Inverse folding.
C-alpha cells in the first residue's frame, strides 16, 4: 500500500513538474525580415557577392583566353605559368568567398550586431515572462505541431521596434 501511494505521489510530482515548464515558440526568420537594417544588410551582401562573383569570373575568363591562345609548344613551355595562374584564381576565389574571405567578414560586420540584438531581446523576453525555453520554428523540420498561443514572434518584433 505504501509503495502504491509513493508511486502515485511520484507520478503526480512528475506530472506537475512537467506541466510547470513553460515554453514559447518564435520564428526567427520572420523576426529578422521585419528589421529594415537586416534587409538592407542582406541586400548589400547580395550586391557584394554579385560584384565579387563578376571579379572571379573576369579573372577566370582572362586566364582561359590566355590559355587558349597558346599553341602546343608554348603550352608546354608555359605550363608552370598556367598552373600558377590557376592557383592564383583559386586563391582569389577563396579570399572572397572562403570562411576567412571578404564576403564572410562583411557578413559578420553587418549581420552579427543585428543577430545579437534579436537574441538579446529574446533572452530578455524569456526571462521577463518566465519561459524556460524558446523554440525557433523557422527552419526546424522536426517541429510537427505547436499551438498558435505559444507563438510569440510578433511580441518579439514589437519589442525590437521600441
Amino acid at each position: 500500500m505504501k509503495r502504491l501511494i509513493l508511486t502515485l505521489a511520484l507520478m503526480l510530482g512528475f506530472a506537475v513538474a512537467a506541466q510547470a515548464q513553460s515554453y514559447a515558440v518564435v520564428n526567427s526568420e520572420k523576426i529578422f525580415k521585419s528589421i529594415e537594417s537586416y534587409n538592407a544588410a542582406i541586400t548589400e551582401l547580395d550586391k557584394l557577392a554579385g560584384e565579387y562573383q563578376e571579379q572571379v569570373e573576369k579573372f577566370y575568363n582572362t586566364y582561359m583566353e590566355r590559355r587558349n591562345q597558346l599553341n602546343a609548344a608554348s603550352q608546354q613551355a608555359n605550363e608552370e605559368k598556367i598552373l600558377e595562374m590557376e592557383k592564383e584564381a583559386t586563391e582569389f576565389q577563396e579570399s572572397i568567398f572562403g570562411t576567412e574571405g571578404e564576403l564572410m567578414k562583411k557578413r559578420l560586420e553587418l549581420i552579427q550586431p543585428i543577430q545579437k540584438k534579436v537574441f538579446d531581446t529574446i533572452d530578455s523576453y524569456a526571462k521577463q515572462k518566465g519561459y524556460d525555453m524558446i523554440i525557433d520554428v523557422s527552419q526546424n523540420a522536426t517541429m510537427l505541431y505547436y499551438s498558435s498561443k505559444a507563438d510569440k514572434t510578433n511580441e518579439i518584433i514589437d519589442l525590437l521596434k521600441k
